């Protein structure tokens, strides 16, 4: 888990900027391969020159100090001082570090000059270059002694402890979500497996009961999808890596469609499916979940029965999978409740539900499409939604809604 | 009918045994290991065509003190440990887990040579699992045939 799991980078940047404004001591946060620092802070010219002349890895050096696990004041390669406070998670593992910017400390100037001379020799600076280096050194903000760090260090400790509390609380929340999902999904898995086996056994014996088993299976699958979407949304696994394996995408699409056959038949919906065969790299579980969400939506938002006189007679879900140069394109089109034009840009945002879809018969959470978008983008693909009003009744439609996804056929574009 | 040998590492196998019923019905022999120690022993002693691996499994070690128990819990997930300890000639692995945490998922992905697919428990249908398992076994057989020339 990283800091980015529980707090947005821009918020950290604002806190650090505020701190810099109040204390004139810039503090930066390191985590992973990122540095967040006050937006108005500029590195001293001295540091820029030192980096130009020698391949310094200040971040590695600071993280080494942080990994010791204790706050420490120390001198950098080129003679400046800074303070590092490790940031730990609830397992006491160092996940990042807060560090103050480089400063000169007057009472320890001799140590700095010595370090500076050693540095000049090490990177073989000419006399002129050393002179320039020395000039820039004396332009770095000075502090009379290390005690000056104290007020800011106390504040640093405060920031560190607050971040620690946030990390711990967040970690606990994640554990709760993981455990709750586990508790729900395990019995659900058991019932789903039993329902399908039951349906297979009943099918040749009693069609009516076999259909009941199929309905149980479908409803549980819907419930499972909701739990899965909810868990993924709450855990917000931004840094999750996907396992990409070559799969027959047409086979995955047809498998998901087959799950909804009964529900579609119950709504008198025709599935009009033509998918071309192709093998592309996908993360099986994730892509299956994305397709599950999309096909589930297409049925949910299709009309059933003969509503709206003659206009309501069209009841279909049209699915087309086509192989394009570099991409596999899948479009899912349905006829029914639509999305307003002004909502199209926002409809994939987390928690957003279209105005027309928010009726009581069509419950939803507004997280399905945002999950789909996240999954498709992780594959390096694209998602597009169009919803065309057929006729002139903006509120009751009908609309023809088409969701198009494009998935890369090769390894390009993936995140 | 097929006669594949499958090792299923799953502490909740009693609860979700129906999930492998179609595999059993089609002739596969399913051996169940309910913890890490047993799984490791069985994998060393017998030859399997595929392993279905749960990630959150007990260690199987007997503790004598609370301290030992706490230390054991801190060792992490024993499904991941099973992957770490696998011999080079391991059969292909199908991870079947309820875990969806990015840290654990990313750990599983460190073993791409053996982990052929990650399937999340919850919504998987027995027919689908059967298809996945048979695909993995067939693919492995094809690859081995290619290597042997």
Assembly status: heterodimer
Pattern of helices and strands of chain A: HEEHHEEEEHHEHHEHHEEHEEHEE
Strand order of the largest sheet of chain A: 2-1-5-4-3
Unreliable runs of chain A: none
CATH architecture of the largest domain in chain A: 2-Layer Sandwich
Summarize the structure.
By secondary structure, chain A is α+β, with helices and mostly antiparallel strands. Helix content of chain A is 46%, strand content 20%.
Tell me what the structure shows.
- The complex is a heterodimer of chains A (415) and B (149).
- Chain A is α+β, with helices and mostly antiparallel strands.
- Chain A has helices spanning 9-23, 45-53, 58-67, 109-122, 127-139, 149-202, 207-235, 249-259, 261-266, 284-300, 368-378, and strands at 27-31, 34-36, 72-75, 81-88, 94-100, 104-105, 142-143, 245-248, 270-275, 279-282, 316-324, 327-336, 382-389, 399-408.
- In chain A, a hairpin with a 2-residue loop joins strand 11 and strand 12.
- Chain A starts with 8 loop residues before the first helix and ends in a 7-residue tail after the last strand.
- With 149 residues, chain B is an alpha/beta fold.
- Chain B has one domain (5-148): 3-Layer(aba) Sandwich (Rossmann fold).
- Chain B has a five-stranded parallel β-sheet with strand order 2-1-3-4-5.
- Chain B is globular.
- The mean pLDDT of chain B is 88.
- At the A-B interface, helix 6, helix 7 and helix 10 of A face helix 5, strand 5 and helix 6 of B.
